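Write out the 3D structure for:
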Amino acid sequence: MNKTDLLLLYDKELREEIEYPEARKEVTSDVVRFVRQAPAMNFVSLTYAKDSDIDRVIENEVAYFSPMNQPFTWKVFDHDPLPSLETKLKSHRFVKDEDRGDAMVLDLADASELLSAQSTTDVRRIEDAAGLKDIIYVLDKVWGGHNTWVNDRFDGHLKVPGYLSIYVAYIKEEPASIGWTYFPNGHFATLFAGSTLAEHRKLGLYTGILSARLKEIQQRGYPYAVVEAGEMSRPIVEKHGFQHLTTTWDYVLRNEKPAG
């Protein structure tokens, strides 16, 4: 499939038709938006409106979401045909998150090396809520903070049959690297995380977890794997055959109004 067709399929399946168990999807003539229970992030995933209508659409969405008193993000993609969207969002108190996400896609037909690899890494799949403490342990060590959100979100997602697979790589029984995959309806399985403790990097743990996830994706009949890669992870997934599809930016509404 060529890039243009892949982008059309990506927008249709992962921005428009996708469902999240913990969110309510609302489709209007202007946008596709998702509403979560407080204090989680609400967001607009796709903008239908014409460029000439952007001011009105943004004002409507801000008026809709602001009373909820929750964080609110507008997803903007490089291939979106709305040249003024980013400028207009900034003028309506949205702040661009400079940590861009590069949507990288892998055709499983081109992943024979990873799919046939015999890993020596101790990679295990987390089957229930009891194993989530290992995910939190790695996230806390790598990113800081207290990532207890994992318990509520992943516990619920693990109860949805076939929706989420979580993997942990261990070094001497200590969780050292993590990654998970969502399986929405359609052609794309979506990869997340890939976090590894600093002292255990360059040992092939990320590759071991990636290989395990791709094998499951292939077994379940998904033709494509997609990951939203940051600056550090993009070179790694490129090395394994992922190709750049598009880049996404989060525009977060700044709730406080300017003085004056």
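Helices lie at 3-16, 54-65, 85-91, 112-116, 132-143, 149-158, 205-219, 234-239.
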